[in-house]
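Pasting as-is:
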Amino acid sequence: MHTIAKALIAQVIADKKAEIERTDQARQVSLKDAKEAEGAMISRYDTFLEEAQYLAGGQNKRLLEAKSVLLLLESFLQRDADVSVQASIGSLVTIENTDTSKTMKFLLVFDGAGGGIFTSPSDENEKISAVSPSSPIGKALFKKTAGEEVECTNLDGTWEIVEIQ
């Protein structure tokens, strides 16, 4: 795996750890609210306890999912997989608009880890988007090779993969 891709995955890991911390704090607040709301309802319209319990449950599910993705990312970072032949998880893919010569870079990551935009470790002015294979752009890139055309409704014009690192 390319050193830039490794550095970007490390940034994704840092973001995921921050998300886990925020989610855990929100879950703790919801649990506290649910405990404080225990007892008889004031009226039939008083649903605060139930809402706080549902919220805590949802945040707990989100927390478990985020921890699962974090484990995948950390274990993947330890491997030294060759992801430069065909676009796959860990690939840094550069595409170019065939009409305008504009380029864009994407890092393919696990589902649940995409959506972030990161600054390239080698160039402060270059932005790289983390996308998962289930996102529209990720679907368009996944399992493609350099030289192939990319079709995606989120991308205007005709794009071609110029490099996979």
